[in-house]
Amino acid sequence: MDARTALAELEAAGTETNRAIYLRHGAGENQYGVSFKDLRAIAKRIGKDQVLARGLWSTGNADARLLACLVAEPARMDEEDLDAWLGDISYYALVDVFVAEVASQVPGLRPRMERWTRSARDWTAQAGWDLAAVLAARDPDLPDRFFLELLAKIEHEIGQAGNRTRHAMNGALIAIGLRNEELCDEALAAASLIGPVVVDHGETGCVTPPAIPYIRKTLAYREAQAEKRAAKAKAKATAGAR
Fold it and tell me: Which tens digits make up the pLDDT trace of 179-192?
């Protein structure tokens, strides 16, 4: 599939209802209003195609760029490519998808995260803190002191950070708090000192979750699930012993 054919398919899949919603979320006028469900279905049918991804990205269309992230081949991208794509983005949802599907899949997450979080550009710093959350969730080899330094940075800088950066910092704090028991205590303490994180979500129903109740609720859910698994395993073992 070439970019022109993909654009035609995206245009056909878009709806005016979604367009209006995405406009409120900051997608801009250059978009068709394609649902994420339809985008993923189209991407699954296409498979990975870096040539198509580059062509889609060059259109500037928000739906095309989301699809580009889904069909991109991260193994064929380097830091220059990642910086160029990120530099084009001014839509928070596209930042999140770009990080999840592309930037977090290219080796070098830690230096990339450290570089991007230092940026004064809101979207770039947002991407950096999105990567920090990815590291907290996925990299078991990083020491606690690395995340303690990030918590200190969040605590001291979140009040002066950009709008979407504040939201991403809050997400990183939550991810760090869910990493292990020791970091949980430190994250809860940092969240208590920070207080409410105010983020302007515009005319949408989106919210930035308060870190303390979110962490505690997630931990309680994990504990409940672990207890269910243990009970199921015990019942299975008891039945097998009869």
Answer: 999 999 999 999 99
Which of 64-88 are b and which e, b meaning 16 or more Cβ less than 10 Å from the residue's Cβ? bbbbbbbbbebeebeeebbeebbee
Q: How many domains does the chain have?
A: 2
| pLDDT under 50: residue ranges of the chain | none
Task: Answer yes or no: pTM beyond 0.90.
Answer: yes
CA 37 to chain centre: 17
| 82 lies in the same domain as 174 | no
Which domain range does residue 138 map to?
Answer: 108-242
Q: Do 214 and 113 fall into the same domain?
A: yes
First to last CA, the chain: 59
**Other C-beta atoms lying within 10 Å of the C-beta of residue 19:** 18
Say if residue 125 is in the same domain as residue 75: no
49 and 15, same structural domain? Answer: yes
DSSP 203: S
CA–CA gap between residue 43 and residue 72 (Å, rounded) = 10
